[in-house]
Amino acid sequence: MSVEISIRNAVKRYGENTIIEDLSLDVKNGEFFTLLGPSGCGKTTLLRMIAGFNTIEGGTFKFNDTLINIMNPEKRNIGMVFQNYAIFPNMSVRKNVEFGLKHKKNLKVDIKEETNKFLKLVKVDGYADRMPDRLSGGQQQRVALARALVIKPDVLLMDEPLSNLDAKLRVEMRTVIKEIQREVGITTIYVTHDQEEAMAVSDRIAVMKDGVIRHCSTPQKIYQRPADVFVATFIGKSNLLQAKVVKENDTQYVEFLNGYKVVFNDMKDANHEEKVTISARPEELTVHKEVQKDGIKGIVKDSVFLGLNTHYFVDLETNEEIEIIQESEIGEIIQPGSEITLTINTKKANVFSEDGNSLMHGVDNITTKEQADKAL
Ligand SMILES: Nc1ncnc2c1ncn2[C@@H]1O[C@H](COP(=O)(O)OP(=O)(O)OP(=O)(O)O)[C@@H](O)[C@H]1O
């Protein structure tokens, strides 16, 4: 049986150091939920609190209505997969998967039948009698996944399970993990510092920094309407441009350093002359070969043709440097040294106040079960 997880006002300290101050979060039953953030932000710490390997200094952790704060890890009925393959090197694939079942009391199942079912699920049934040293990294992680799932855990916790694999295998394995999680329907918390991986697998992502959830929402909403400048730059690539708010004749403009003015229809009301930061992803900017009156002028420093798209690195007249991605056209690459004009897609780019918080409408923070029920 899968459960929902509820965390309220969590606190974690290591000695004098407070790692997590006051963190609250619900994870829905069956959801694929990802903790994403830079190294040291507290992802693993939080995961280990849920697993029972870390003490909890404050707040409540519940699986459905059961308080688990001081429950032993074995009693929490959790399946875990770590980055370094946690499978036993001296046991065959089959024995590895059987191991969990044999050590699980009160699970009245046919061990052989159940093991076969999970070997098949993760597609390692063809190597059931092989020893782990004769498996590839991806196959080893499949075995680790089967071993975690065969005991029918209530929750699956995964800590950077793909980080020892090469780039191509990572992409392949994240699809495998997502498919199997869907098929089994188990509540899953996944830790990664790889934003693309997080977007590919998750129903919802919590972006963390310094023990705080800065934005928790669906991958699409986090990418398109990030809650603050940190989230905008951590998820995908964002160019940051300085500007100010100008109010003229009942219209609110954003004026860039060179005087280029645009209107953001989805922007909240701000103060005249207020300083703002615009974050624009490389695909949210357009390069014009002809020098135009409206826009920001710049000189192309480098053009990198990558097939479908061409990346332009541009020095702007505002002394800012940016990267633009444009769909490649036949014979149309703009050469380094060329003068261009840049315009901005105001439907997609975001505006942030001086303290870094979003000034856009439509920023969703979905941390409670009620919000998640409505949004997912
Ligand atoms: N056992 C410990 N004792 C003291 N400090 C610790 C301990 N474990 C972690 N920390 C500290 O807690 C903070 C959060 O660490 P944590 O491992 O949770 O980060 P993370 O986001 O998972 O990073 P990474 O992606 O590098 O694993 C770090 O500053 C780390 O140094």
TrEMBL record:
The keyword Glycosyltransferase does not apply. Keywords: ATP-binding, Nucleotide-binding, Transport. Residues 5-235 form the ABC transporter domain. One of its GO terms (molecular function) is ATP binding. This is Iron(III) transport system ATP-binding protein. GO terms for cellular component: ATP-binding cassette (ABC) transporter complex. It comes from the Bacteria.
